[in-house]
Write a structure and sequence with these properties.
With 403 residues, this protein is an alpha/beta fold. The protein has 18 helices and 9 strands. The radius of gyration is 25 Å and the shape is elongated.
Amino acid sequence: MPLPDSTFLPTGAEALLIALATPSPQGPTGIPVLLWGRPGVGKSSFIEGLASDDVRVTTLIASIHDPTDFSGLPFLENGRVRYAVPEWVEAFTAAADGILFLDELSTAPPSVQAALLRVVFERRVGFAPLPTGVRIVAAANPPDLMVGGWELSPPLRNRFVHLQWDIPEDLYIRSLTEGWTSGTLPKIDPAAHRAQLPEWKIRIGGFLRLRPAALHGNPEENAFGFASPRTWDFVAALLCSCELLGYTLQGPEPDDRGVILALVAGCLGEATALQLIEHLANLRLPDPRELLSGETQVEVHDLDDAELYVLFYGLNARLLPALESDDLLPYSRRYLELAEDVFTDGRRDVIFVHLKELARAGWLARIAAHGPQENPDAYATVMERVSTVFSDPAFNEFVRVLG
């Protein structure tokens, strides 16, 4: 289902709808979202406007609830402590999908924030799981307007995608005569998302191999989202959703890039997000599977060092699962041909890490075990190329120094 025209939606709404439709890394639908916006800009009314016969929206004002409303009220039964499930949880069982809206989150005291940690990420209230179709959205006022409130703890902040919410002047003026455009949750096929997600993990993994310091962000330097392994998982899932919904970084639509940047910055912080977006937008890489199978070709001298590094990272990710398959010899032959091209191009050091990873995974031993009996000619060709690549003095010195 397509999204409404973003021209008639508040700032942040398009990204919100994508996040709510995204299959989360934990399995259920929806990446938790925290909307930051000044009072009176329609955060609550937009979320509550998503309610329908199939989607139940339950709004809880965090500051007026006790921690037990989110962790469950303990009681003694037959000599054991159990936890009573709050009524608001049971209300979700009547609808296939739902949205738990935690309004005024920045007014919640630390004790309530602590109780929300498990609700937001583990989707559990006490020991009772939320239904898989329930998404979680929270809203808060910006830090400069947080009078009488509490700063959100880094562990709680790290469980959300942070989106900035506002109503542009022209949209409000239009709404005075034409009304507001209601949001519509898009549909993303979970099976298609699972199939495509590994490709995005490969691209992100390649970026992190080049910039390992980007894996962890400093909460004190980012007022909203900050990088962690958890939020990198969010980014992979969100980028996969954007692709399935037709958003692209390389296309002619500037709004696409703005929505993608908002989602990525909401997970990682703006500085890291800009680096990643720039990296992904400039990648000129073929599909690793098509390269290994011979369906496509690439000229390695046309790629810069960063692209070459990411390319071989993706090739490794495809070759390693094939160590026990019939694809081992043909994949290995093509991989080694590309490695030889890199050596000839004078940039062998760029892929030393990848070659060492394959060697440590038992790649050469698997070739030796499978090759001679199954396809002697192909085996001989592969071993000739293995000898050329792995006898390289510079590579052997690299292995010796790093151990």
